[in-house]
TrEMBL record:
InterPro entries: Divisome_Glycosyl_Hydrolase (IPR052177), GH (IPR017853), GHL10 (IPR003790)
Protein source organism: Deinococcus budaensis
Keywords in alphabetical order: Lipoprotein, Signal
Residue span, Glycosyl hydrolase-like domain: 103-380
Tree of life domain: Bacteria
Protein name: Uncharacterized lipoprotein YddW (UPF0748 family)
Leader sequence segment: 1-21
Length: 571
């Protein structure tokens, strides 16, 4: 017999109270914070290697008469304590737009009940089907640990996790049987939760945590501190850490029939003053030719760190497409503060998304690194201008999406069902897909422990499926990812493999340009099929890009014409 939402209200209320009150359960993602005193620096070009590359990265130079290549561009999500439940303001009736995406999704987090036992997974899938969503964004990698048994990182060691149980296997099987897609959600830079540390001996916090000395992979402030709240973050600028993070995502596509992956926490922590591990500083000095320790507000330092995040997104996408070109690569992206006007990339580069947490998601979409961008558009229509901000970020993302699909993610836990339904309806009417956060806290009253999860699910189901609601009529998400091919390579043989200019040449003209990451990796995902010549640091190689799949160029040996700067970490 099908279990209804209300029949599970009492036990789930107890569980919800225990989880939300206990130290083991982090609060849901932050809401829109009061804006701090913040002035975004003027954007600067990415830092170039001082050895053999040109000093400034400008746009590729096309052949005479060819159109100029576009410059890359970047963006973020938000936290706020919930305010009083107010009636939803009256919104004008939305005018339906041509659909950009038909995804209708639900995030399922792993910090409470929902994925930790066979019974919970079965109930989660049943509840999602009753709600009418077509996609589950299932948290697979949490803080360096997996809700799975065949990933590259250890499984979670929570005491309420059922033994010998593989959640990702079961949720994928059950959801597919109900016609839903499953996207494996990964907290990419998540390293450790200090309140509830993973006890597995091979967990990243034990091998490369804050007490690991030179082997540490933690992102740090200038004073060496590493905690943001209860969390420690891995630094994307440390090459070995980047290898670890890439594999944590790719192993899920390799070992499970998931429909794609979603990159969460693909950024630096809030505040801007991060990335001060000695290894990161040594890399920056070697690649930029600078000395001393850069200030957090130094625009060149910010641009360099932002490039490390973008390079991590690119490499994940290439590695996923190399295994399964039809897998979706998605990211949960930040939308802090007032939105830029549609198409206004200059305003975006003045936002906290770009200048504080160093996300450049417009570039990720334009360069083909993302098939689907899910905005963490966590706003409360009853607070100030946040309702207009939600609509504005949706409009901006749609205007810069290139070929990517875009969905608006809204915060179920911050709003009563009526406002959630209004936000979802406006989002879908604008042509975007919609995803709700989250299954475990589906209403403001559930978040505030005034209502059980089952009651909250029933409340939003009623609101979302009412006539005219976003889930009133079942919609399938049958789209195919826009990116299905790429080119990947690496430079070796030098002490400074990062920040080197790589050019892609087709039919005698430069059609794309990028930079190598700290491990010398580079790649492209928007090249048309056919012969392409890659040029980097005096090396050249020609290969054909396939119609589908990723071609890997051989390692290119770089010989520096002058001694590379010492990477000692000392000024």
């Amino acid at each position: 017999m099908k279990t209804s939402f209300l029949s599970r209200s009492v036990p789930l209320l107890v569980l919800t109270l225990q989880v939300l009150a206990g130290a083991s359960a982090p609060a849901p993602p932050p809401v829109e914070p009061a804006p701090p005193a913040f002035t975004a620096p003027a954007p600067v070009p990415p830092v170039m290697a001082p050895v053999t590359d040109p000093p400034v990265l400008g746009p590729p130079v096309p052949a005479p008469g060819a159109p100029a290549l576009p410059l890359p561009s970047p963006v973020l999500p938000s936290p706020v304590p919930p305010g009083p439940a107010l009636p939803a303001p009256v919104q004008p009736a939305p005018v339906p737009a041509a659909p950009i995406s038909t995804v209708r999704g639900l995030w399922v987090d792993a910090f409470g009940p929902g994925l930790k036992t066979r019974a919970q997974v079965a109930q989660t899938v049943e509840d999602a089907a009753a709600l009418g969503v077509n996609t589950l964004f299932v948290q697979a990698v949490r803080r360096g640990d997996c809700l799975c048994l065949r990933g590259s990182v250890p499984h979670i060691t929570d005491r309420d996790f059922e033994r010998n149980f593989d959640p990702l296997t079961i949720v994928t099987r059950l959801a597919h049987a109900r016609g839903m897609r499953v996207i494996a959600w990964v907290s990419v830079t998540g390293g450790v939760n200090a309140r509830v540390p993973n006890t597995h001996p091979k967990h990243v916090s034990r091998l490369h945590g804050p007490a690991s000395g030179a082997a540490s992979w933690m992102s740090r402030r200038p004073d060496g501190s590493w905690l943001e709240g209860a969390d420690g973050w891995l630094d994307p600028a440390i090459p070995a850490a980047a290898d670890h993070m890439v594999e944590s995502v790719v192993s899920l596509v390799r070992n499970y029939p998931v429909d794609g992956v979603q990159l969460d926490r693909i950024r630096y922590p809030d505040g801007g003053a991060w990335g001060y591990d000695p290894k990161t500083l040594a890399r920056y000095r070697a690649e930029s030719g600078t000395k001393g320790t850069p200030a957090a507000s130094d625009p060149r330092w910010q641009a360099w760190k932002r490039e490390q995040v973008t390079a991590l997104v690119r490499r994940v996408s290439l590695e996923v497409k190399a295994i399964r070109p039809t897998a979706w690569v998605s990211a949960a992206t930040i939308t802090y503060g007032a939105p830029p006007a549609p198409g206004d990339l200059a305003a975006f580069r003045r936002s906290r998304t770009y200048a504080d947490v160093l996300q450049d998601w417009p570039t990720w979409m334009r360069e083909g690194y993302l098939d689907l961008n899910v905005l963490m558009n966590y706003k409360r229509d009853s607070v100030g201008e946040q309702g207009a901000w939600l609509d504005g970020w949706n409009a901006f993302a749609a205007s810069v999406r290139a070929g990517s699909e875009v969905a608006g993610g809204t915060a179920l836990y911050l709003n009563p069902p009526g406002i959630t339904a209004a936000q979802a309806t406006r989002t879908v009417a604008s042509g975007l897909g919609w995803v709700g956060y989250s299954y475990r806290t589906p209403t403001l009253d559930v978040y505030g422990t005034r209502q059980s999860t089952g009651q909250g699910l029933e409340a939003i189901r009623s609101a979302l499926t009412a006539p005219g609601g976003a889930l009133a009529t079942p919609v399938a998400w049958k789209g195919k990812p826009p990116t299905v091919r790429g080119l990947a390579g690496r430079v070796v043989g030098t002490a400074v493999p990062g920040s080197r200019v790589v050019e892609a040449v087709q039919e005698g003209r430069v059609v794309a340009r990028t930079l190598t990451d700290g491990g010398g990796h580079y790649g492209f995902l928007t090249l048309p099929p056919g012969r392409v010549e890659v040029r980097v640091s005096g090396q050249r190689w020609v290969e054909a890009v396939p119609e589908t799949g990723v071609v890997r160029f051989p390692d290119l040996l770089v010989r520096d014409v002058a001694p590379a700067p010492a990477a000692s970490g000392k000024p």
